[in-house]
Amino acid sequence: MMTIQTSNLGFPRLGRKREWKKAIESYWSKKITLDELNTTLTDLHKENLLLQKNYNLDSVPVGDFSLYDHILDTSLLFNIIPERFQGNPVNTDLLFDIARGNKENVASALIKWFNTNYHYIVPEWDNVEPKVNDNILLERFKYAQTLNVNAHPVIVGPITFVKLSKGGNQSFEEKVETLLPLYKQVLSELVEAGAEYIQIDEPILVTDESKDYEAITKKAYDYFSEAGLGEKLVIQTYFERVNLEFVNTLPVKGYGLDFVHDNGYNLAQIQSGYLDKDKAIYAGIIDGRNVWAADLEDKKQLIETLQEFTDELVIQPSSSLLHVPVSLDDEVLDEAIADGISFATEKLEELDALKRLFNDNDESKFNDLQERYTRFNKQDFKNAEYDFDSVRTARQSSFEDRRVAQQEVLNLPDLPTTTIGSFPQTQEVRKKRADWKNNRISDEAYREFLENEIARWIKIQEDIGLDVFVHGEFERNDMVEYFGERLQGFLVTKYGWVQSYGSRAVKPPIIYGDVKWTEPITVEETKYAQSLTDRPVKGMLTGPVTILNWSFERVDIPREQVQDQIALAINEEVLALEEAGIKVIQVDEPALREGLPLRSEYHEDYLKKAVHSFRLATSSVKDATQIHTHMCYSQFGQIIHAIRDLDADVISIETSRSHGDLIKDFEDITYDLGIGLGVYDIHSPRIPKEEEITTAIERALQNIDRSLFWVNPDCGLKTRKEEEVKEALTVLVDSVKKLRETNDPAPAK
Ligand code: GLN
Ligand code: ZN
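YS: structure for the whole thing
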């Protein structure tokens, strides 16, 4: 039988214990010099390369490693420098300035990389002078050669790069054409230096819109082919399926296809004969975005199937391993659970096991891993029973009736004011939490600290004159991890970090089994806060859609079932809060929109299930209990019907950075539930002026019924300083007080 090869698309930069992050942040805070930074990072890069080599990979990626973001690296390579940063030498400091901003200039925008939680730096084309700067990719490639690592360079392709960028007067096509000769130069240099193939990432080809740029895509790759580079290029895609009939017309060596997140279409298209047999398939068969051990038996069959359709098969992860933690080795885990988990290095081991099986007839590793996989998947924590049908998915009464019942209890003024939940997570707050976690202070001491903080902030809210209070979320590290640590079925790791943007990493909990609520999670703090004041204190929970989207989710049962299990758990917590006398409960869903699938044909189904889960979590309360939700984005129009269907009594949305756009959405739709449009931007330390807030409210009231309107900042205040929060909220309340005085109850619209 034909032999197979193994490869990888990208390895996590962070290092096993976030050494990468620590080195970069030390440089930023001037604790180490640039030379020291370079030495540390070169060591780390070396470690990554050798580690991958040790897993017997036929080819190891270079160009995935970066000082911040690989898209930003590409921008610097081609001199696509934001206008305000032009004129400076293109070096590491410029790279960090563009990424983080400096005293004179704001940073470039960060945007989510497709449907992942990784953020790239958006290239800016205004008045740029594209040319090839120092070819760092070539340097890194040569470095890998000195280590005797068989490497292939990785670079984002021109279609994806331009599509993800902004600014400039040129058309999309013109920008691509400008870049083609520059790409040709860089690619040729790599080939001359001995690259056997170059992985050119074009994930944009998996999107709905890719059909709009087939002509320019074809033109670009024909150009490379005419330059003699075609045989050296592998067009790499991931996260969804491509239109293979089109992709197959691109004259390159082979195509990288995702066989995990393609909804089955990539294989189906191959089986329908859309791929020429002399094209290599770089088959993404091991899930690069989730942490589960693969079912190798299943993968073996997939390989056998693919072998019928190509003369050259390379197996690899479905995407870069940037999206998973580095290694299980540092975790102390229950063996029953460890059996089922696979981080980046373990995924490379799976590839090796398959290669040994196919090429050497060596079954030992394969059998060993498969046995562990089977053992994990047979366990009891995956077989709980749920009675979904006994939980309400609709409130007892209509919004109009609930509103009356709620007003009787809450007695809120015109234009009620509130905040989104968190108050400043100061150094002290974080230190106390860490001290408590590491047993340096007792439970009692920690509790006392939290109570003091809560009491202090209840008093502050009273002094400012807000209407609905919050307790401040001082006990929480992260809005998902906090619940993950307290619900059954979740595993919170110690080193399971994943890069989110720049040096920032998140540690998504792993949902390994059935999710169950076992005891109250937030009741103690909320009840304590409520005991200190007559004003209503809002209970604060994270919703099922967001918890799922920001966790590593199990895949052995349908996604919607996992989401509904979480919803039932949140429902228990909602009822526990209500039982404890809490009259307003907010269930945050900031991740609802970003979880939309890449292909629009799946949007409605996703939204329907999201709405169902949210309602499962929130519908069991009494009419008089007011349910709030909060979301952190604008671009509301596209999913407004789903948001309306959540049937939350009040929604607060982040809008101040794009106020105009959101108000426009409201010209076309009627939103007939309670709504608070964020009236100032919490991401900036700047204290808003009273007129600004007044204007924002008045503008909103042109399209929204005053009796439904709430006034609040646009997101949680955890990143702000105490003084900033006090001042800004005082301005907000002052503005509302004046508006109340002048209120002539004119009918809206
Ligand atoms: N309640 C959370 C907070 O205030 C909401 C955070 C968010 O929207 N991402 O911090
Ligand atoms: Zn928010």
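YS: worth flagging: The longest helix spans residues 443-464.
IM: good catch. Also The CA atoms of residues 704 and 748 lie 7 Å apart.
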